[in-house]
Design a protein that fits this description.
By secondary structure, this protein is mostly helical. The protein contains eight helices and no strands. Among the domains are: 42 residues; 42 residues. The model has no long low-confidence stretch (mean pLDDT 78).
Length: 155
């Protein structure tokens, strides 16, 4: 993921713009940035008086990773929807995508273990199954010489 441009670059571009170093489009080409970015920085400077970048922050999760670890330890084979229901029973409503993020932060993996024995249930094989529809006329024409005769036939 690309990072934000440095404050140094922002200040250089705005100093050149204020000093009459060219139009916004010319400055964008000279500093190898987009025209929209130069406009955005100039607008922010007009509003705030500073061309410096506003620091971004991530809001911390309200959910305790220890709770998730305890729930997974209580039933390691629980699926995501079961974990959500157990968290909801404890008063914590959470979306599936956010639960995945909390599980990742807690270091919990929901993967099958390769060391466990394979299932005793045999997989169904559809060798004797018949197709549900007949092949199209186009696919029937492509088999062998029939296709050639159809392609060479006068219309």
């Amino acid at each position: 993921m690309a990072g934000a441009y440095s404050n140094d670059l922002r200040e250089k571009v705005m100093k050149a713009y204020r000093g009459g170093g060219g139009t916004m489009k010319e400055l964008a080409k000279r500093f190898d940035v987009s025209y929209g970015w130069v406009r955005k920085v100039a607008a922010a400077e007009r509003l705030t008086g500073s061309s410096r970048r506003v620091p971004q922050r991530r809001v911390p999760s309200r959910f305790d990773p220890a709770l998730v670890r305890r729930l997974v330890a209580a039933q390691p084979d629980a699926v995501l929807s079961e974990l959500r229901e157990r968290m909801r029973a404890q008063g914590a409503s959470i979306s599936s995508s956010h639960l995945w993020w909390v599980l990742k932060q807690a270091g919990v993996r929901l993967k099958k273990s390769r060391s466990t024995p394979s299932s005793a249930t045999a997989k169904k094989i559809a060798i004797a199954a018949k197709p549900s529809s007949k092949p199209s006329a186009r696919s029937r024409l492509k088999t062998g010489s029939t296709w050639m005769r159809a392609a060479c036939r006068p219309r």
